[in-house]
Specification:
heterotrimer, A alpha/beta, B mainly alpha, C mainly alpha, A: alpha/beta, elongated, B: mainly alpha, 3-methyladenine DNA Glycosylase II, Chain A, domain 3, Alpha-Beta Plaits, 7 helices, 4 strands, 34% helix, disordered C terminus
Chain lengths: 591, 208, 191
């Protein structure tokens, strides 16, 4: 039996998992309308590639990934795209985000799709591309694009693949029921992952010991595969990536380091199943197992739900009693968030919809003063000091918060759970994280603005200097010109001209310059010919104008146009005369 | 000899004190030369904390001059674009108490604004281009002017010079990307001074 | 050797200059808002105290006593202290402008820090040798640093805490200092 380590801290809330495990995974009827948000993952939102009114088939790509960190979206069922606009989504802010609404036609027709049964002979790059095209993101809750996680690239080679089957949060049983029913396919999925990562030496499935049926379901399939099923004592939050890595390998990842830097990759078991379906069966990610639980619902079970299913649809088929429900939660009781409306859609990271009664999750008691008992520090799985973080968060002391490693908080909620004064500690940390991130962004902006301002000032100074230099140069040139003209006037043969330095001198100097600019006769002729051509064109235009508007114009306008035509004709004659004169002069000179 | 001086107390005291004074004076003079300090690096550190909008609302022609003034002892609460957070940061740096923003110099705006030129009315005079301290307006004489929104700091120095008054300051809408968790409501209600200015604690809008 | 240990323990803990003899309370209250400035201030004061103890011993033994000018002790020592503090000020301005800015007016005020003059006068009246004088000076500085750093750490936590309005600011600081002083009374029977 492989040894495991014990993480610091942690709590043991009541598990409440048995309620949703009495029945196998069910399926819901197809909802009338499905709402697919364009951002269900970490990274840039996807961009819609279908238009309103288009008919789509099940599994058809409806939104493209944008940029390096993004995933595409696919139609969860066949039907028509009825809207692409902002709709309320499941987010703590209650804000809306761009979504694609599909009205189902009830036929649930699949698009043509084909998988690769023999993935062993496909290249890791091809398999990773398949996973990316299938729109797979981390389904344990984080939503990080899996294809990127599976391409560690230049980092150290991977020697440990960890499959996260912990599911430590109370009430949630999505992964548990999936393992019980789909163990064989999951092991195939692990084989795919192993092949992509270059067959790492250690392949571990980390699972808590409160899931004996799931462990029993996995055991027969892992025999002789090199995969180890490692079970460890149940504790919340063992399912966090850093916590699970420590439990299974004893390695503590330093702050800011990714598992890939330590040669490890950690993938959720639900994502593993989705990867198998994508590679072997050619199916993109369009549905997931979601737990519907809580005493306010008559039926507690897991459903294979289509992505985009409105929560209200799930509730309607689970004998939901609105009056008995204290609040609607997406996610678990520790890390989930309350929904303000049931019309929001299920997304790729939704593992549970919890509809608790007032006895399960009562209304919040008001927070009282911190009594500095220190129980939060005992409970923290990341070995932080929640009490200090709380006080500094209240005081908005960003320096001290960062010194106490605020950004290493995984927001698991263990500290809030144990606080005897009911202080919502995690809200304080989330707020402070937001404030610090905002301050960092503003610092970047203000540094940038300072650079631009300093360049602006530099540019102004340079422009001033250039102007000064030009002025100085012009002054010098003017004085030099005056001097030469004076010299010329002094040696002029034609008697005394006007006094040196007067306006007439300057004009004479300018005329001398112009005369000095000898243009060759050919060039002169060409010039005259060009001006004739221009004059002819103007005559033509004036005539055209006159003709075209003859009927509509008034007498005055007609007179004006006529005058213009006359003028143009005159100019033409002048130009022709000049040319004739030049030719005559030139031929005389040649002679 | 020392005994003879010791016999005359006034002379002794005079010689002792003057001698000590001269000695220490010489030592200090030497030290002053050795430890000479040029410039004032504190100005750079204060300037780092200012928001660099160069708007002039503090009464100085830019952020650097205001930083220099603060280094000479000026009040630190004159910068509206920086707001209370900047005042707190400067107070932290200089280890002085952090006052409220001086309303005489302006109010802290809730939302950032960005300039927008109504292109139908622009006459291409380049007055706004010359006014912008960060060169965020694109254009040339007799050609269309437009604001590069990403570079605009919202200082609104361009609004005044425009002869046709075609520049609006539009608030930047904050979408999902800019949303951050609000602070939890402080619900202490134990003694009278907590209650003053607080509403009764409510359970509305609390997340799980 | 044992004497030196006794001198140090005495000046740092038992007869702590700030909390037991109540000297040097001005910088104790004024510079204890932040830990960094407190550390800087305590380093500066320790430096001044040690140098002053040495210099004032020399001045006392070589100038004042032979010339029978013992009544001029106070003035002469103030002269010494002023010079040492001025030197310290120049040194800090050169090496750490931020600390210089942070300490602000409290740096020249070390001149009027009664602990410094107190150390010099007490050493002179106790008839100690050079080594013992310097050790008393250093011990006084170390005791001052210890208490100042503790106090500023507490004030930082107080700054973030929920203090009732009537107690905010100097009031809670005074109460804390009083409680610390009470605690240090526990050392009185040590030696």
């Amino acid at each position: 039996m492989r040894s495991t380590w014990v993480t610091p801290g942690g709590v043991h809330p009541p598990e409440n998992k048995h309620q949703s495990l009495t029945m196998p995974i069910g399926s819901l009827p197809i909802p009338e309308k499905l709402l697919v948000p364009l951002s269900q993952h970490i990274g840039a939102p996807a961009k819609a590639c279908v238009k309103v009114g288009a008919k789509v088939l099940k599994g058809q790509k409806i939104a493209e990934a944008t940029g390096a960190v993004s995933v595409p979206m696919h139609a969860p069922t066949s039907g028509t795209v009825t809207a692409i606009e902002d709709r309320p989504i499941a987010h703590s802010s209650g804000m809306s985000a761009p979504c694609i609404e599909i009205t189902s036609d009830g036929k649930d027709t699949w698009i043509d799709h084909k998988g690769v049964a023999d993935f062993e002979h496909a290249s890791p790059q091809a398999l990773t591309k398949t996973i990316a095209d299938a729109g797979i993101a981390g389904m344990g809750g984080a939503g990080f694009p899996s294809a990127i996680k599976l391409s560690p690239g230049h980092r150290r080679p991977i020697n440990t693949l960890i499959i996260n089957a912990t599911e430590c949060e109370p009430y949630i049983t999505a992964d548990d029921s999936a393992i019980r029913e789909r163990a064989a396919e999951i092991i195939t999925g692990i084989g795919i992952l192993s092949h992509i990562l270059g067959n790492p030496v250690n392949i571990l499935i980390g699972i808590e010991d409160n899931k004996p049926e799931a462990i029993a379901a996995l055991e027969p399939h892992v025999a002789d595969t090199g995969i180890s099923v490692v079970s460890f004592p149940t504790k919340y939050p063992s399912g966090g990536e850093k916590q699970l890595i420590y439990i299974l390998t004893g390695k503590e990842l330093p702050s800011g380091q990714l598992p890939a830097d330590a040669g490890m990759v950690c993938i959720n078991i639900g994502t593993t199943y989705a990867i198998k379906r994508a590679v072997v069966n050619g199916e993109p990610l369009i549905s997931r197992v979601t737990t519907m639980t809580g005493n306010a619902c008559g039926i507690n079970r897991n459903y294979e739900t289509l992505i985009g299913t409105p929560v209200s649809h799930m509730l309607a088929h689970s004998e939901f009693n609105e009056h008995a429900c204290s609040r609607l939660v997406m996610g678990g009781p520790m890390m989930g968030f309350s929904l303000t409306s049931a019309e929001v859609p299920i997304v790729k990271t939704t593992n549970c919809i919890l509809a608790p009664s007032y006895s399960e999750i009562p209304d919040d008691e008001p927070a009282q003063a911190c009594i500095r008992c220190g129980m939060c520090a005992e409970a923290c799985p990341a070995s932080l000091l929640p009490q200090q973080l709380f006080w500094y968060s209240q005081a908005e002391d960003h320096d001290r918060l960062e010194a106490h490693n605020l950004f290493d908080c995984i927001e698991c909620g263990a500290c809030s759970y144990v606080c005897p004064s009911n202080i919502p500690l995690v809200q304080y940390y989330r707020h402070s994280k937001g404030e610090i991130l905002k301050a960092r962004e503003e610092k970047v902006k203000s540094d940038h603005a300072r650079e631009r301002f300093e360049f602006h000032q530099q540019r102004m100074e340079q422009a001033e200097k250039d102007k000064e230099a030009k002025r100085a140069a012009r002054r010098e040139a003017a004085e030099k010109a005056k001097a030469t003209v004076a010299a010329n006037a002094g040696t002029a043969k034609e008697g005394t001209g006007p006094a040196p330095g007067s306006a007439a001198d300057i004009i004479a100097a300018a005329q001398a310059r112009a005369a000095a600019k000898q243009v060759s006769p050919e060039e002169q002729q060409a010039k005259f010919e060009r001006s004739i051509a221009g004059a002819e064109m103007r005559v033509q235009m004036a005539t055209d104008k006159l003709v075209e508007t003859n009927a509509k114009q008034t007498e005055d306008q007609k007179n004006i146009l006529n005058a213009a035509l006359e003028g143009a004709k005159q100019k033409l004659e002048q130009a022709q005369a000049r040319l004739a004169e030049h030719v005559k002069k030139h031929s005389e000179q040649v002679k | 000899m020392i005994e003879s001086i010791a016999q005359q107390p006034i002379l002794a005291a005079l010689i002792a004190m003057v001698g000590l004074g001269v000695l220490f004076g010489a030592l200090l003079g030497y030290a002053a030369e050795k430890f000479k300090v040029e410039g004032d690096p504190i100005v750079e550190q204060i300037d780092e904390l200012l928001p660099q909008t160069q708007c002039g609302q503090c009464g100085f022609p830019g952020c650097k001059p205001y930083a220099e003034s603060i280094a000479s002892g000026d009040a630190i609460n004159k910068c509206p674009p920086g707001g209370q957070s900047t005042i707190n940061a400067i107070a932290n740096l200089l280890d002085v108490p952090a006052p409220e923003l001086d309303a005489e110099h302006g109010e802290e705006a809730d939302l950032r604004t960005v300039a927008y030129i109504r292109e139908d009315e622009c006459i291409g005079c380049t007055k706004c281009i010359q006014a912008c301290p960060v060169d965020a307006i694109l254009g040339a004489a007799k050609l269309m002017h437009t604001v590069i929104a990403g570079e605009c700091t919202g200082c609104d120095l361009c609004v005044e010079p425009c002869p046709v008054d075609c520049i609006d300051m539009l608030p930047l809408t904050e979408g999902l990307k800019q949303w951050h968790w609000p602070a939890p409501q402080n619900q202490l209600d134990i003694i009278a001074s907590d209650r003053s200015g607080h509403e009764a604690p409510s359970n509305e809008g609390r997340a799980a | 050797m044992q004497e030196f240990a006794i001198i140090l323990v005495s000046s740092i803990l038992i007869n702590n200059y700030v909390l037991v003899q109540f000297l040097g309370l001005c910088p104790f209250m004024g510079v204890s808002n932040k830990l960094e400035s407190a550390i800087g201030m305590s380093a500066a004061t320790t430096f001044v105290l040690t140098l002053t103890a040495m210099a004032s011993y020399i001045v006392d033994v070589m100038v004042l006593m032979p010339l029978g000018l013992i009544y001029l002790r106070t003035i002469a020592f103030i002269l010494v202290i002023a010079a040492v503090v001025q030197f310290t000020k120049m040194f800090i301005e050169k090496t750490s402008p931020l600390l210089y800015r942070v300490l602000g007016v409290f740096l020249p005020l070390i001149t009027t820090n009664c602990a410094v003059l107190g150390v010099a006068l007490q050493n002179a009246s106790k008839d100690l040798n050079f080594m013992e004088s310097s050790l008393y000076g250093f011990g006084a500085g170390a005791g001052f640093s210890l208490v100042l750093i503790f106090f500023s750490a507490m004030r930082e936590r107080l700054a973030a805490a929920d203090i009732p309005a009537p107690f905010e600011g100097a009031a809670i600081a005074m109460i804390t200092a009083g409680l610390m002083s009470l605690a240090f009374m526990g050392f009185s029977g040590l030696v």
